Amino acid sequence: MAQSSEYAVVARDIRKSYIARGADRRKNIKSRDITVEALKGVSFAAPSGESIGILGQNGSGKSTLLRLIAGGETPTSGSLLVRSQPVLLGISAALQPTLSGARNVRLGCLAMGMTPEQVDEVYDDIVSLSGLDEDAMARPMQTYSAGMGSRLRFAIATSIDPDILLIDEALSAGDAAFATRAKRRMDHLLSKAHSIFLVSHAAQTIEEMCTRAIWLHKGEIIADGPAESTARHYRLWAWREAKDEYESANKIIEDVKKDYVKPNIVLASDEKNHNGKRH
Asked: What are phi and psi of 195, to 5 degrees?
């Protein structure tokens, strides 16, 4: 049983639905609204100092979950509690593609609440972590490759030691040297009891960067456990899917579902209401 006060992020039976207008080109047939369920009863508790990878195919609800944790969207139903304001890598800094990397470092840090003096203090560390040279920092970001932009965003976002850091696919665009530096930076954050959520299609990235992994499938959590074993099952399932071996792929899904036990989340408000009842 998980007590909400002990955790950085707690989700209980989170559901998220979107309304899409269905198209029908036939005459005299009105289009109708279609409800799309992105998340279906997601529950988990994330302790401080844990790095959690979120695995799943396209459309499984990974990025939707991160946006909910970040506060950019609200759940349709369920309870979602966070200890502090998370930083979502990719939208955390208001970066401008027409400005240079150097200008964007300062702009991004100021947007996250730093003073100009604090920006000066962390500037060299940000550039060092990103691995970009002076020439690259002087160029507009619109000339950067996807990997270069992701590396700089990661370096900016982690410069403030965020209590809860959310990373959506950013690390998959970096090279091996950057992955090593990023891992060191994540270990530093975890040593200070920070919490990290990393979304990636790459099971190996989750395995190397995280201690725990959550597998989302069609909006539901079907596995939640050690990163190594969860990523291994996901990798095997993805390989079977790619080979069109759907029967064996479905068997993997069935097996991991059998092993998954949905957590019983107890919120502080539940205890308060219980204690307030007369017996």
From this structure: -120, 140
Angle between helices 146-157 and 176-191 (to 10 degrees): 20
276: CB partners within 8 A, 6+ apart? none
Contact assessment for residue 226 and residue 235, using Cβ atoms and an 8 Å cutoff? no
**231 neighbors 221 (Cβ within 8 angstroms):** no
Would you state the pLDDT for residue 28? 59
Beta-carbon contacts of residue 164 (< 8 Å; ≥ 6 apart): 8, 9, 69, 82, 83, 84, 85, 86, 87, 194, 195, 196, 197
Domains of the chain (ranges plus CATH)? Answer: 2-92+162-274 (3.40.50.300)
Which residues have C-beta within 8 Å of that of residue 146, sequence separation ≥ 6? 173
In terms of pTM, does the model score above 0.90?
Answer: no
Integer Cα distance of 238 and 251 in angstroms: 12
Residue with tokens 């370096």: 155
Pick from 118, 123, 131: nearest CA to 103: 123
Q: What mean pLDDT is predicted for residues 68-88?
A: 91
Q: Check if the beta carbon of residue 63 is closer than 8 Å to that of residue 199.
A: yes
| Residue 100 β-bridge partners | 140
The whole-angstrom separation of Cα 53 and Cα 50 is 10
d(Cα 125, Cα 159) in Å, to the nearest integer?
Answer: 8
pLDDT of residue 171: 59
> Which ranges constitute the DSSP H helices of 83-165?
101-111, 116-130, 134-138, 146-157
Residues 68, 168: Cα–Cα separation, whole Å: 13
Average pLDDT over residues 182-192: 80
* 80/87 Cα distance (integer angstroms): 16
Helix (H) or strand (E) holding 95: none
Q: Round to whole Å and give the CA distance between 131 and 176.
A: 11
Q: What separation, in Å, do the N-terminal and C-terminal C-alpha atoms of the chain show?
A: 24
